[in-house]
Amino acid sequence: MIQNLVKRRKVSVFLWLLVLTAVGSVISAVDQNLVWYLLLGDVGVIAWRLATIQSRINPIPEASVDPQDPGTPPAYQPPPSPRPRSTFRPLRVDPVGSSLSAQGALDELDRMVGLAAVKRELNKIMASAQVEQRRRASGLSVSPVSRHMVFTGPPGVGKTVVARTLGAIYRDLGVLPRGHVIETDRSGLVAEYIGQTAQKTKDRINEAMGGILFIDEAYTLAAGRAVQGDFGQEAIDTLLKAMEDYRERLVVIVAGYPAQIGQFLSSNPGLASRFPKTIPFPAYTADELLEILKRMLKKEQLRFVGDQARMDSMILNWLTSRSRDPGFGNAREVRTLVERIREAQAVRLANDPSGDLQAVTDSDIQEALEI
């Protein structure tokens, strides 16, 4: 290819010289100086053409840096071409609780005090889901099942823990793709102005899609039906449609006190039929709450010292009295009591630098119970 180029360039230069000779002969008769100017210019053109041919035949190598001679100029590096934009999507961060395995969730539930009836119901749900999984694996038909349910009971009896356990079980058995739990209440569903409640409720539904939407104190959605400007019914209507349209990808659990939940379910003709299962959560007994207290203290690396029977009696009397309050928080109340015991211990140890950091005395208990 280069040899052909050279041949073409040589012919071009030769023809150019013939033209110059002919033109020079004509002009020489007119002005001798003008001939010399033209010839000098044409010599420059010819030299440029020859240099171009030479550079194509023997290109000048790029300079390189000699490691023994730092003064050597570096080789020319062309600017890098722009890198293509990555097509990878950002990693998704799942909500808290979605990484809990079904076995781990069941182990956590087994360690909880009481809840015998709840655990039996959960075993039924798990057995049903396992059989459905086996039928699918065998190519047998599986009828669509509504898994929405109602948890009834006072606060602090483990309803949220059981919801998370269900999510983990459903995910591991392939019933739900994610199995996470989104907790909300009236404030997370109902807006202040017309037209905003439906969208706010849809946003919570979208967050829970593939898992469980857990609505605590759900009866408050219907509590303001007689009040003008209350949009709880709009949230209920939006929920009903989503529960039917996405029942293979969404489980809705409503929770609250038994009497109020009953009023909630009767507030809409199609509401009760959407929740085929109700799991009652009974309040803890005083003895169960005392056992929960001891487990919490053990987890905090604290222990009773002194007259154990006297301490147990003080705590049981306090729990029995407090449980008569309609707003008693069960395990939540016990958690608060543990915090108050730690505060009382800290005040005592502040004046006793050599005191046992794990010991809980009867004076700490009395201070926490305000006896």
Automatic annotation (TrEMBL):
SUPFAM superfamilies: P-loop containing nucleoside triphosphate hydrolases. The keyword Acyltransferase does not apply. GO terms for molecular function: ATP binding; ATP hydrolysis activity. CDD domains: AAA. Residues 145-285 form the AAA+ ATPase domain. Keywords: ATP-binding, Nucleotide-binding. SMART domains: AAA (SM00382). Residues 61-92 are annotated as: Disordered. PANTHER family: AAA-TYPE ATPASE FAMILY PROTEIN / ANKYRIN REPEAT FAMILY PROTEIN, AAA-TYPE ATPASE FAMILY PROTEIN _ ANKYRIN REPEAT FAMILY PROTEIN. Belongs to the CbxX/CfxQ family. This is Stage V sporulation protein K. The gene is spoVK.
